[in-house]
Amino acid sequence: MGIAMVSGCATTPAVFTDYDPGVSFGQYRTYRWAQKPEGYSPLEQQRLVAAVDAKLRERGWTQSTEAQIDIVANVATETRYSLDSFYSGPAWGGWGWGGGWGGWGCCGGWGWGASYGSTTTRAYTYGTLVLDMFDAQSKRAIWRGIAQGTVPSDPQRQTTNMLASVDKMFATFPPGAPIAQAQ
Protein backbone atom coordinates (compact mmCIF):
# COMPACT_ATOMS: atom_id res chain seq x y z
CA MET A 1 0.00 0.00 0.00
CA GLY A 2 1.20 3.50 -0.75
CA ILE A 3 1.77 6.03 1.93
CA ALA A 4 0.43 9.04 0.13
CA MET A 5 -2.85 9.80 1.75
CA VAL A 6 -5.63 12.04 0.62
CA SER A 7 -8.75 13.11 2.49
CA GLY A 8 -11.46 12.90 -0.10
CA CYS A 9 -10.68 12.87 -3.79
CA ALA A 10 -9.35 16.37 -4.40
CA THR A 11 -7.55 17.40 -1.24
CA THR A 12 -4.22 16.67 0.34
CA PRO A 13 -3.85 14.68 3.55
CA ALA A 14 -4.40 16.15 6.97
CA VAL A 15 -0.97 17.03 8.37
CA PHE A 16 -0.03 17.76 11.98
CA THR A 17 3.28 18.49 13.65
CA ASP A 18 4.35 18.61 17.27
CA TYR A 19 7.65 19.33 18.98
CA ASP A 20 9.31 19.74 22.35
CA PRO A 21 9.35 23.51 22.99
CA GLY A 22 12.27 23.09 25.39
CA VAL A 23 14.58 21.96 22.60
CA SER A 24 16.80 24.40 20.70
CA PHE A 25 16.71 23.06 17.14
CA GLY A 26 19.59 25.34 16.16
CA GLN A 27 22.02 22.93 17.84
CA TYR A 28 21.23 20.16 15.35
CA ARG A 29 22.81 19.83 11.91
CA THR A 30 23.16 16.06 11.25
CA TYR A 31 20.67 13.19 11.05
CA ARG A 32 20.38 9.55 10.07
CA TRP A 33 17.52 7.21 9.28
CA ALA A 34 17.18 4.91 12.29
CA GLN A 35 14.10 3.32 10.69
CA LYS A 36 12.74 3.80 7.20
CA PRO A 37 9.06 3.03 6.66
CA GLU A 38 8.34 -0.56 5.63
CA GLY A 39 5.44 -2.66 4.47
CA TYR A 40 4.54 -0.89 1.26
CA SER A 41 5.96 -0.08 -2.15
CA PRO A 42 9.77 0.20 -2.19
CA LEU A 43 9.39 2.98 -4.78
CA GLU A 44 7.18 4.99 -2.42
CA GLN A 45 9.69 4.40 0.38
CA GLN A 46 12.52 5.73 -1.80
CA ARG A 47 10.45 8.78 -2.74
CA LEU A 48 9.54 9.53 0.87
CA VAL A 49 13.14 9.25 2.08
CA ALA A 50 14.35 11.44 -0.81
CA ALA A 51 11.66 14.06 -0.07
CA VAL A 52 12.56 14.24 3.64
CA ASP A 53 16.29 14.30 2.80
CA ALA A 54 15.69 17.22 0.41
CA LYS A 55 13.72 19.20 3.02
CA LEU A 56 16.43 18.70 5.63
CA ARG A 57 19.18 19.66 3.15
CA GLU A 58 17.26 22.87 2.40
CA ARG A 59 17.54 23.66 6.11
CA GLY A 60 21.27 23.03 6.23
CA TRP A 61 21.13 19.54 7.72
CA THR A 62 23.30 16.68 6.40
CA GLN A 63 22.96 12.94 6.66
CA SER A 64 25.72 11.28 8.72
CA THR A 65 26.46 7.96 10.40
CA GLU A 66 27.50 9.96 13.51
CA ALA A 67 24.28 11.96 13.56
CA GLN A 68 22.74 14.16 16.22
CA ILE A 69 19.19 13.20 15.21
CA ASP A 70 17.63 9.78 14.57
CA ILE A 71 14.61 9.73 12.25
CA VAL A 72 12.06 6.95 12.62
CA ALA A 73 9.29 6.58 10.03
CA ASN A 74 6.20 4.40 10.40
CA VAL A 75 3.31 3.75 8.05
CA ALA A 76 0.03 2.12 8.99
CA THR A 77 -2.83 1.35 6.62
CA GLU A 78 -6.24 -0.14 7.15
CA THR A 79 -9.19 -0.99 4.98
CA ARG A 80 -12.24 1.08 5.82
CA TYR A 81 -15.74 0.85 4.42
CA SER A 82 -18.22 3.48 3.36
CA LEU A 83 -21.92 2.69 3.12
CA ASP A 84 -23.98 4.84 0.77
CA SER A 85 -27.75 4.31 1.00
CA PHE A 86 -30.38 5.60 -1.37
CA TYR A 87 -34.13 5.43 -0.80
CA SER A 88 -36.81 6.15 -3.37
CA GLY A 89 -40.58 6.34 -3.38
CA PRO A 90 -43.09 7.97 -1.05
CA ALA A 91 -42.56 5.49 1.82
CA TRP A 92 -44.61 6.59 4.83
CA GLY A 93 -46.95 9.39 3.91
CA GLY A 94 -48.40 12.13 6.03
CA TRP A 95 -51.97 12.86 7.02
CA GLY A 96 -54.32 12.82 4.05
CA TRP A 97 -57.32 11.38 2.27
CA GLY A 98 -57.75 7.83 1.15
CA GLY A 99 -57.86 4.32 2.48
CA GLY A 100 -54.88 4.93 4.64
CA TRP A 101 -53.00 2.67 6.92
CA GLY A 102 -54.81 1.04 9.77
CA GLY A 103 -58.24 1.26 8.15
CA TRP A 104 -58.97 4.89 8.86
CA GLY A 105 -61.32 5.08 5.91
CA CYS A 106 -62.20 8.14 3.84
CA CYS A 107 -61.64 10.76 6.47
CA GLY A 108 -57.88 10.76 6.30
CA GLY A 109 -55.09 9.12 8.21
CA TRP A 110 -51.55 7.99 7.82
CA GLY A 111 -50.85 6.59 4.38
CA TRP A 112 -48.12 4.44 2.99
CA GLY A 113 -46.68 3.78 -0.43
CA ALA A 114 -44.20 1.61 -2.17
CA SER A 115 -40.53 2.45 -1.77
CA TYR A 116 -37.22 0.79 -2.27
CA GLY A 117 -33.73 1.27 -1.02
CA SER A 118 -30.26 0.24 -2.03
CA THR A 119 -26.95 0.38 -0.24
CA THR A 120 -23.55 0.38 -1.88
CA THR A 121 -20.47 -0.64 0.08
CA ARG A 122 -17.18 0.93 -0.93
CA ALA A 123 -13.85 -0.28 0.48
CA TYR A 124 -10.94 2.15 0.63
CA THR A 125 -7.51 2.30 2.23
CA TYR A 126 -6.86 4.81 4.99
CA GLY A 127 -3.25 5.48 5.85
CA THR A 128 -1.15 7.25 8.44
CA LEU A 129 2.48 8.31 8.06
CA VAL A 130 4.39 9.23 11.23
CA LEU A 131 7.87 10.77 11.18
CA ASP A 132 9.58 11.03 14.56
CA MET A 133 12.87 12.71 15.39
CA PHE A 134 14.90 11.77 18.45
CA ASP A 135 18.02 13.30 19.93
CA ALA A 136 20.53 10.54 19.07
CA GLN A 137 22.45 10.91 22.33
CA SER A 138 19.64 11.24 24.89
CA LYS A 139 17.00 9.27 22.85
CA ARG A 140 14.54 12.04 23.76
CA ALA A 141 11.69 12.67 21.29
CA ILE A 142 11.96 16.20 19.91
CA TRP A 143 9.66 16.40 16.84
CA ARG A 144 6.78 14.53 15.20
CA GLY A 145 5.03 14.91 11.86
CA ILE A 146 1.82 13.05 11.01
CA ALA A 147 -0.05 12.80 7.69
CA GLN A 148 -3.28 10.85 7.40
CA GLY A 149 -6.09 10.30 4.98
CA THR A 150 -7.42 8.12 2.20
CA VAL A 151 -4.78 6.46 0.02
CA PRO A 152 -5.42 6.86 -3.72
CA SER A 153 -5.00 3.71 -5.78
CA ASP A 154 -3.10 5.55 -8.53
CA PRO A 155 0.68 5.53 -7.78
CA GLN A 156 1.16 8.96 -9.39
CA ARG A 157 -1.48 10.51 -7.10
CA GLN A 158 0.09 8.68 -4.15
CA THR A 159 3.43 10.33 -4.91
CA THR A 160 1.87 13.75 -5.46
CA ASN A 161 0.04 13.56 -2.14
CA MET A 162 3.08 12.21 -0.29
CA LEU A 163 5.18 15.13 -1.54
CA ALA A 164 2.46 17.58 -0.49
CA SER A 165 2.39 15.96 2.96
CA VAL A 166 6.17 16.29 3.39
CA ASP A 167 6.00 19.92 2.23
CA LYS A 168 3.36 20.68 4.87
CA MET A 169 5.25 18.83 7.60
CA PHE A 170 8.42 20.79 6.99
CA ALA A 171 6.83 24.17 6.18
CA THR A 172 7.75 25.54 9.62
CA PHE A 173 10.70 23.29 10.38
CA PRO A 174 12.78 23.68 12.43
CA PRO A 175 10.43 25.00 15.09
CA GLY A 176 11.36 28.46 16.33
CA ALA A 177 13.19 29.39 13.11
CA PRO A 178 11.96 32.25 10.94
CA ILE A 179 9.64 31.02 8.21
CA ALA A 180 11.26 31.17 4.78
CA GLN A 181 9.68 33.67 2.40
CA ALA A 182 8.76 32.60 -1.14
CA GLN A 183 10.90 34.31 -3.75
From TrEMBL:
<feature type="domain" description="DUF4136">
    <location>
        <begin position="15"/>
        <end position="175"/>
    </location>
</feature>
<protein>
    <submittedName>
        <fullName>DUF4136 domain-containing protein</fullName>
    </submittedName>
</protein>
<dbReference type="Pfam" id="PF13590">
    <property type="entry name" value="DUF4136"/>
</dbReference>
<dbReference type="InterPro" id="IPR025411">
    <property type="entry name" value="DUF4136"/>
</dbReference>
